[in-house]
Amino acid sequence: MTWEEAARKFKSHESSMHGLSPLTGPRLSPAPPNSRSNYTHDPHEMDLDASPTQHTHTRQPSFSDARIRTPLPTGPRPEKPTNIPPLPGYDSFRADLQGSADRILASASRSRYAHVSVLLIRWQDDEDLGARNAVQDLAKVLGDDYNYTVQTKLIPTSLDESKSHWMWLSRVASDFIADQDQRDILKIFYYSGYSYLDGDRDTVFASSKHADPASAIRWSSIQQYFENARADALLIMDCAYYPSYKTVRRQGMLELIAASAGEDHVELLGRSSFTRALTDLLRTRAVQQFKEPFSAAELHSKVLSLYPCIIREQHPENEVMARFPTPLCIQLSGVKTLPSILLAPLRHGEAPRSPQSGPHLISLTFRLAEDTFNVDSWAEWLRSMPEGILEAKVEGPYRNMFQ
Which spans does this entry mark as compositional bias, Polar residues (predicted)? Predict the structure, then answer.
């Protein structure tokens, strides 16, 4: 059978199928010798895609579409490789950061510090018995209830001619800061005594109002040790404190709580009322198991709220209080996002909580701008983890393989 005979035989059937054969597909015929010049369009002989401007009717898909238009693969796309080797040379970074996270989460009180050192300073010739007892009570609470390392030193009354009270306190403060000066350590410095403002607008410590000016200690030069320390520092002053605009903190947090902001508070409050109020607050909070630890800022606000009650007890004859002193709180930080210093009991030897008790897992991945990793900065961030986290796993850093 020739092509012409086949075309005549199946012409009627092809018209119903719009020029298609269910078995053979579109008709194929050999081109005549002069096909380019004798070509004429026959819609029953060809099934060509028409542009929208040429045809407006909808064409049924032909069996040849599967052969002409091959679809793209529809399988799942390959995932990013998960076994990316970490950057070489950063094993110590990962280990130190993991150790910081484990230590923070091991304590039920979630203290930000692995160790807290306390230095209590008062004058040897201070004859006020109430002041001595107040310092002893504060040392007992911080040592027994909070498990802090506490030492009390007395500023000597007499020194050799080659030494001065400023030199003595400068050496004591320097040694106190130098011992374990690191970011997960908290240093607490406490002073009980008399203070005044000298001609250079600096706070000066003295044993009494009538003490020899030669024995006075200019505090600004001593405070520089705490300003330059790596460890967080909390200064507690049971005296009037006169702030200085020169105070600068390079790193970490430096906070100060003083009995009053420059005015004479002893006349209305009495000697060491500030220390006794602070000690009672710390003792009460330490035994409250379901209460969050004190921040230095909250401790200051609590002492402030107690001042009116203390004055009423000291002066019941005054029905109306015309004035009363206010405790001072100062925060200085090299990083503005650091929170206030946290005063929480240290539970040494406490068994860590089981991580299996938490049913939820959250994974966070960070893409860093450069290959510099500061353990202190990351540990500082971990110390501010929200409550409810039972375990933290540190992985990486990894090389960025997907640009």
Answer: 51-63
Cite the residue boundaries of each domain of the chain with CATH code 3.40.50.1460. Answer: 111-343
Read off the pLDDT of residues 190-218 as tens digits, 9 standing for 90 and up: 999 999 988 888 899 998 888 888 889 99
- ∠ CA(355), CA(186), CA(283), 5° rounding? 80
- In three-state secondary structure terms, 325 is coil
Give 279-334 pLDDT, tens digit per residue: 999 999 988 876 788 899 999 999 999 988 888 887 777 766 666 788 999 998 87
Return d(Cα 50, Cα 39) in angstroms, integer: 18
Vertex 168: Cα angle to 162 and 174 (nearest 5): 130
CATH class of 111-343: alpha beta
C-alpha pair distances (Å), 328 with each of 111, 235, 237, 274: 25, 11, 9, 11
Residue 17 tokens, joined = 């199928």
Percentage of residues in the chain having pLDDT higher than 70: 71
Q: Where are the alpha helices (DSSP H) in 10-90?
A: 11-16, 35-38, 65-68
CB atoms within 10 A of CB 251: 19
Antiparallel, parallel or unpaired: β 203-206 and 342-343: unpaired
**Closest listed residue to residue 114, CA positions, set 183, 45, 25:** 183
Q: Edge-to-edge, what's the strand order for the sheet holding 203-206? A: 194-197, 203-206, 217-218
Confidence of residue 381 (pLDDT cuts 50, 70, 90): confident
Cα–Cα dist 49/47, whole Å: 7
- 213 vs 355, more confident: 213
More confident: 62 or 284:
284
Q: How far apart, in whole angstroms, are the C-alpha atoms of residue 288 and residue 108?
A: 13
